[in-house]
Amino acid sequence: MVNNxxxxxxxxxxxxxxxxxxxxxxxxxxxxxxxxxxxxQMSSSNKAIQAICQPTKFKDACExxxxxxxxxxxxxxxxxxxxxxVEEIKRVMEHSATLQELKKDEKTKAAFADCELLFDWAIxxxxxxxxxxxxxxxxxxxxxxxxxxxxxxxxxxxxxxxLDSYSEMDGQATAKMTSLLTKSQELTRNxxxxxxxxxxxxxxxxxxxxxxxxxxxxLMSSDSEFPEWMSLSDRRLLQEAPDExxxxxxxxxxxxxxxxxxxxxxxxxxxxxxxxxxxxxxxxxxxxxxxxxSESSDSAAATxxxxxxxxxxxxxxxxxxxxxxxxxxAPKRSKERYIIxxxxxxxxxxxxxxxxxxxxxxxxxxxTKTIITESVSVExxxxxxxxxxxxxxxxxxxxxxxxxxxxxxSIGPEGHQAVAVRASGDMSAFYNCHFNGYQDTLYAHEGxxxxxxxxxxxxxxxxxxxxxAVFQNTLLVVRKPMQNQxxxxxxxxRKNAESSGGYVFQNCTFSGDKEYLPVKNKNKSYLNRxxxxxxxVIIMQSxxxxxxxxxxxxxxxxxxxxxxxxxxxxxxxGPGANTENRVKWPSIQQLDESDIKKYTPGPYLESESWIxxxxxxxxxxxxxxx
Length: 626
Ligand SMILES: *[C@@H]1O[C@H](CO)[C@@H](O)[C@H](O)[C@H]1NC(C)=O
Ligand SMILES: *[C@@H]1O[C@H](CO)[C@@H](O)[C@H](O)[C@H]1NC(C)=O
Ligand SMILES: *[C@@H]1O[C@H](CO)[C@@H](O)[C@H](O)[C@H]1NC(C)=O
Known about the structure:
This protein is 34% helix and 17% strand. The chain is an alpha/beta fold. Strands 1-2-5-8-11-14-17-20-23-25-26 form an 11-stranded parallel beta sheet. It has an 8-stranded parallel beta sheet with strand order 3-6-9-12-15-18-21-24, with no helix packed on it. Strand 1, helix 14 (323-328) and strand 2 (338-342) form a beta-alpha-beta unit. The longest helix has 27 residues, at 2-28. It binds 2-acetamido-2-deoxy-beta-D-glucopyranose (NAG) (3 copies). Residues 44-194 form the Pectinesterase inhibitor domain.
């Protein structure tokens, strides 16, 4: 750990050291300036590049990506790496003959369209990472590090999602697209590895209140505290560097002991008995039979004094009758929140909040009253869409917030993959919302996300994707599947170890719909299966009913993820929570109390900096009494 810890200080010191080298070169040899100076600059730049690229998996690509930067400053080198990644994606988009060939392929048209969109997302995420890093002082990297990690992970997931769309359509074309994206994925992973190395310094050392020059001296006091991959001459060079190179102390991280956020006036998740109607036969049933029990607490909107910018109402009393039309007129790239009040009614439409349409907030009149529903599915819609493109509501804008609404894909289990909501925007939050569907109900795709007091229903993989998401006080309800199906609640899709994705379920309830209960021992249910090799799921302080099989998990694709995944259950309760007979995969981990805390919303999502202002209750740490 210490090795990683010194990594950034080492680099910062290197900057000063190389600056001094240059300074002396100028001072002493004014006359024969040019050549020597350039060479010394070159060599210090090369040294810095090698040092920064050392931990990456694809070193040659890393070094090459930084070679044009003409700098030994870590920040500029890392930015050069981001820029090279963008250029690589653009090169594929603009100059690849294979891509032109794929574009003409009728059979995979839908996948190609997804890829065009997703490449653009990846470019946007990399470019804003480049800008963000440019704005800050390396000493304050901690302020933006998680953001950069999440954006780069998003760029990686976007590229992977393009390949997913192809693999749903055609094997040969998938192989071609995979090879086109190899280099850009490698570069993106390198970028993440570099960022992850920077993290160790600030996260593992409590710098608060300490004199950083002291830390610097301490870290530099012995050779053994340098990263083991660093050459002796580099160590010497860095050791000679003056103290001023130390970065200033970062601001103290959110105090984990801070008081619990205010609770909503709305009562949180309804008991499983009340929960979701089977809407396969009649998707409208939810609205037609509002439950009196939940009536008084149905709308949480009353807690916030959010004034809507526009009103959508089925009965013509608002500015719009369609949610999609209201979104189409919303401002682009707005820093201000744009609030769309959606009055009670069933909105049969698809809604897309594109990337770049930021800070949209939907407020409904309660999940039994405001319902957005459609029925696009992979199996029943022609032409056959990609899973990515089945969502009733897709939200890619940053800061998309929804409260008091039901989102539904009503096709039923026969539609197979049929998403109700795809959430791809960073800093998205859903409060008192219902997500109703069967297979693939909620695609928590990428970015930081927070779900609170929600209900999610489904049959297979009904929470899936690779967002960095926390689900708090949320009810997960298994519904009756098709005859030949088993049920799986979660299929997390983290593909690479570098990525920041992973799901946390805290004080959630895993339960079954009453129509499912009679078949629960025939069509069995599992908590989780690894969609990809590094799938990551933490279930803590939650209620697990006896609908979950004792083994808890099943494989998805041979032995994929059984060793490299990361699955934790901590402090759960209920008859399904007994872990004694769980599968014995190496990926099943035990955490102690200090480690599990990392997965609460405060540290994991930096929730305190963005959730309280949304009027959404959030307990940022362990929930007391559970
Ligand atoms: C780096 O230096 C070389 C040679 O001095 C020059 O040609 C190139 O334009 C410089 N690149 C940047 C990004 O400044
Ligand atoms: C935990 O979840 C249960 C059931 O959803 C809820 O009643 C309870 O209030 C939650 N606990 C806290 C501290 O929020
Ligand atoms: C689902 O249940 C039916 C009977 O209701 C049974 O025939 C079938 O084998 C079960 N399938 C799975 C995969 O559990």
